[in-house]
Amino acid sequence: MAKINVSVIKLRFRGRLKVKEETRNFYNGVFIDLGELVLFTGKVIRQMFQPPFEFREFIKHGFLLGNKSLALVAVTGFIMGLVLTMQMNPILADFGAQTLLPGVIAVSMVRELGPVITGLICAGKISSGIGAEIAAMTVTEQIDAMEVSGTRPLSFVVASRVMATTLVVPILVIFADAFSLLGAFLAVNIFEDTSVTLFVNRSFSLLGFVDLFPSTLKTVLFGFFIGLIGSYKGYTAGRGTESVGLAANSAVVAASLTIFVIDLVFVLITSIL
Amino acid sequence: MDKEEVITVESLYKSFDENPILRGIDMTLNKGENLGIVGKSGIGKSVLIKCIVRLIEPDAGVISVLGTNILDCDSNELNELRKKVGYLFQGGALYDSMSVRENLFFPIRRTQFKDKKLDTEELIERSLRSVGLLDAIDKMPSELSGGMKKRIALARTLILKPEIILYDEPTTGLDAVTSGEISELILKIREEYNTAAIIITHDMKCAKIATDSIKIMDEGIFKVEGTYDELSRSQEKEIRDFFN
After folding, report:
1. Is B110 on the interface with A (CB under 8 A)?
2. How far is CA B110 from CA A49, B157, B220, in A?
3. Judging by beta carbons within 10 Å of its beta carbon (0-12, 13-18, 19+), is residue B10 exposed, middle or buried?
4. Do A95 and A126 contact (CB within 8 A), yes or no?
């Protein structure tokens, strides 16, 4: 009978235990992070209603964040509209439903693609930017300096940025939607000569309140969480310089994931209603 | 007559990941006193003063600042108390997106926004004059040298007229001349603003100039206490090491 090598079994068992422990630590970390994010959200919301109000900071960040992302969002929207129209046209042509093309593009862009793609762009650009900026402030003890002088950095640094993104992201989505329709108009004109009036009429013929309201509400939440997650990751960054990169990176991942989750929840709610 | 205690710390404990840093610290700081805390790097000196302003939450102990147990304060009470305690960070921690004027204006704007009669310009100029850097009022932090940054950070601390100032290695990274100037400045600030101070330092020249008494920290507690002259005469190796 072959001898059982006990030490090998022990090593394998230890290895499995280690993997289990690491997995448990990972999940614990995720839940701890979630819990801390909830507490952080509560604090930030409370700070939004406590004077002094940082109206100038809010306007400054709103302008900067919006201005920086506008070109990217507009170009992406335009290309999305153009590409989607070119791909949808032959499919609808098979059914003789080409006249529905502007409406289909408008519905898909306004309901889903416009908000989600703009949200993802903003998660990549705005959330990471906020995360890195606040993390740099944390690393250089600027946040601590505000904290110890009783100046409430959560209100000055975080609340103003979160309010700015909450306002700016829906505006950027409107731009993305508008530019996607422009792209779609261009693509439609490649296949057949269509007037602007006819295109606009056909685009809005399929759009209703049910399409506009949830998607707008969704973008407000996207904006809120893009600002919040970026700020949270920056605020809770470690002390070394590598924390700045880590904060930016994890802000993008967490914000992108949150956008998909919010989107899924909204789709489920609207489909039930 | 009993001296008025502005900070009292009793049995303060703090660990990071099972690694004990503070192991039952007891200390008092009296009004008008400049207390130096000396010890090797990583021994927990900065942790102690961060606990005093609750930038770090201690595991156990009592910290009384200006008669208030800081560990019992809610966030509003804590903010009120923090306005009376200045903190000079090692790197200055100037807000790099703001000019010197804005750096100094910021704490007033955020904490005394209800006081419409406050002459902020006068306050800013007075603070900058105290640190001898009125000329730098419109400069950005990136245009300042290390020593200037620390002076401006000190001016920012002074603007709220604190009763206590906590200096975290005020002369680290500075040349001997600038270190001497900063040490003299610490003394001058005490005279001008009637503050008490805890000065964390490795620089024994700074400790000699700026402190009334020195505590040497080791293994999470204060091992020795005395004036600079008393400690400098000590024959114990651990103490002599700091003076050589």
Report:
1. yes
2. 14, 14, 36
3. middle
4. no
What tokens were used for A175? 């731009």
- Amino acid present at B181: E
Mean pLDDT of B134-155: 91
Q: Is the dihedral of CA B161, B125, A153, A233 positive or negative?
A: negative
Partner-chain contact B96 A149, CB within 8 Å:
no
C-beta atoms of A149 and B82 within 8 A:
yes
Å between B78 CA and nearest CA of chain A: 8
Residue identified by tokens 């008025």 is B4
Rounded to whole angstroms, the Cα distance separating A134 from A161 reads 10
Distance (Å) from the C-alpha of residue B99 to the closest C-alpha of chain A?
Answer: 14
Give B72-112 pLDDT, tens digit per residue. Answer: 998 889 988 998 999 999 888 999 989 999 999 998 888 87
For residue B20, which phi and psi values (nearest 5 degrees)?
-70, 130
Helix or strand holding residue A6 (H, E): helix A6-48
Cβ contact, residue pair B95, A51, below 8 Å = no
Report yes or no: A258 and A162 within 8 Å, Cβ to Cβ: no
User: Which residues pair with residue B13 across a beta bridge?
Assistant: B23, B60
